[in-house]
Design brief:
Elements lengths: L1 E5 L3 H12 L3 E5 L3 H8 L10 H10 L3 E4 L2 H7 L2 E4 L14 H13 L5 E4 L7 H12 L8 E4 L9 H6 L3 E5 L3 H16 L18 E5 L1 H32 L3 H9 L20 H14 L5 H25 L6 E5 L14 H11 L3 E5 L4 H7 L4 E2 L3 H5 L4 E4 L4 H4 L3 H7 L4 E4 L6 H6 L3 E3 L5
Parallel strand pairs: 1-2, 1-4, 2-3, 4-5, 5-6, 7-8, 9-10, 9-12, 10-11, 12-13, 13-14
Helix pairs in contact: 1-3, 4-5, 5-6, 9-10, 9-11, 9-12, 11-12
The structure holds uridine-5'-diphosphate-xylopyranose.
């Protein structure tokens, strides 16, 4: 099929690249002139594992193209994926201005009726509003657009693999024809009949992927309900960690045993500095806001958000207790990205730590395998080091903020010799307390005092 993708950000590029890889002809557009020029020249504006490889193979096979001209992209596809940003407003509500703008462009630029697929994360009922907007804006042409909700469940760092090997594909529709078209778009992925770039050309054996057909409202709700549940799970583990500290138990032992119950599952029970990134905090707020607009008080989600915000304070309590006065102390910060294997620092708990350290007058020596240049632009007062051992040199404390493997595997004996004092406050529970203490470190983590 011929597909258009509006918005060449993180979601749009992964969607476009993967659907081209699955055999479709894809035309992408964006309002960012530089971004389009970069893509047209064969560049990749974001870092995502495998993305450069599949964009290149799609480009050389003539399966993907880019244009600044939205009209050209809109007319060039039978189905249009809307992948524009839906950032949070002050009050937590999702800002849908870009979606409205694209709806107007589609309605005025299209010459034939299109299938309009909402891929951006949006609050429930947006699809219905989108259809109303398309109808209103296409008054003159009278074209009958069909609207579909097809939420993404992509994790940064594994987005390509998540797209090509999903747990489920959710499609919210209003009519049979749209369901049929969506099944056709995803057929290669459902049947695993594409050359898999993630696994050297062959899809690994696995269960068939299910395509769930729902109403539009349900599809939109599934996305927010899933992300909010995962956030809730993390905050739950964090409260258990606080309890463990007071009672004298080990949170890792507790959550490991809990996770063995398949009804609970082991993932997203890691205690520490809490969740960050561009999705969880914003989706949680948008979901609470949506619930409020229809008179449902989503108290448990508000509590999850509150618990998450308190993680930084809890972390600093530990730092203050250990360091006493923070001012003028040399402190190493290990990790700046919001999670491992990404250069993304948006809503990163690690940055909150850097900010607070600088506010209190510490000399911050930060390190991260991917995120230094982004963080440097925001906090030029800190010093930045590619090599973690350089960041640790002469430091009176090391604060672990991101769960990168390179930090997990640090040689702490060597680090201890470089540091001015053997003190580690671990916001990600990466090390064994007994081992760190055996190496002569004063070691603090979450839920394991
Ligand atoms: C998330 C969802 O997983 C994905 O389905 C959705 O489409 C977008 O949002 P992402 O933001 O890439 O993906 O990050 P994820 O890997 O889910 O981690 C979110 C945050 O939670 C990170 O800051 C991570 O460090 C933190 N986390 C995760 C914990 O603190 N504890 C855990 O046990 C798991």
């Amino acid at each position: 099929m011929r597909l258009s993708v509006v918005g060449c950000g993180y979601v749009g590029l992964v969607t476009g690249a993967c659907l081209a890889e699955a055999g479709h002809e894809v035309i992408c557009t964006d309002i960012d002139e530089q971004r389009i020029a970069h893509l047209q020249a064969g560049g990749v504006p974001i870092y995502e594992h495998h993305l450069d490889k599949i964009l290149e193979s799609a480009r050389s096979a003539g399966k993907i193209s880019y244009t600044l001209n939205a009209g050209e992209a809109i007319r060039g596809g039978d189905a249009i994926f809307i992948c524009v940003g839906t950032p949070p407003k002050e009050n937590g509500e999702a800002d849908l201005t870009a979606i409205d703008h694209v709806a107007r462009q589609i309605a005025t630029e299209a010459r034939t009726a299109k299938l309009v697929i909402e891929k951006s994360t949006v609050p429930a009922r947006t699809g219905l509003e989108l259809r109303r907007a398309l109808t209103a804006y296409s008054r003159n042409s009278g074209l009958a657009f069909r609207v579909v909700s097809n939420p993404e469940f992509l994790r940064e760092g594994t987005a390509v693999s998540d797209f090509l090997h999903p747990d489920r594909i959710v499609v919210g529709v209003e009519d049979e024809a749209s369901a049929r078209d969506m099944r056709e778009i995803y057929r290669p992925i459902l049947e695993r009949s594409f050359r898999c770039p993630v696994h050297n050309g062959t899809c690994p054996p696995g269960n068939a992927v299910s395509l769930l057909i729902t109403t539009i409202n349900s599809a939109e709700l599934i996305k927010h309900a899933s992300n909010s549940f995962l956030a809730l799970k993390i905050s739950y583990a964090n409260v258990i960690a606080d309890l463990c500290e007071k009672i004298g138990a080990d949170v890792e032992e507790v959550t490991h045993a809990m996770g063995l119950d398949p009804r609970i599952g082991e993932q997203f029970l890691r205690a520490g500095l809490g969740f960050g990134g561009f999705c969880f905090p914003k989706d949680l707020q948008a979901f609470v806001h949506l619930a409020g607009t229809v008179g449902v008080d989503f108290d448990i989600l508000k509590a999850a958000e509150r618990v998450n915000k308190q993680r930084i304070e809890r972390f600093f309590e530990k730092v203050r207790r250990a360091l006493w006065v923070v001012k003028d102390k040399r402190v190493a910060v290990l990790g700046l990205a919001f999670k491992a294997n990404t250069d993304d620092i948006r809503f990163s708990p690690a940055l909150e730590v850097v900010k607070e350290l600088l506010r209190q007058g510490a000399q911050v020596q930060a390190t991260d395998p991917e995120a230094i240049s982004r963080a440097q632009a925001l906090f030029p007062a800190a010093s930045y080091h590619e090599d973690p051992y350089d960041a640790l040199r002469d430091a009176e404390a090391a604060l672990v903020c991101t769960e990168w493997d390179i930090f997990r595997n640090l040689d702490w004996e060597r680090a201890g010799q470089l540091m001015a004092r053997r003190l580690v406050v671990d916001g990600r529970n990466l090390y064994s307390p007994s081992r760190m203490r055996a190496l002569g470190f004063e070691y603090h983590s979450f839920g394991r005092e």
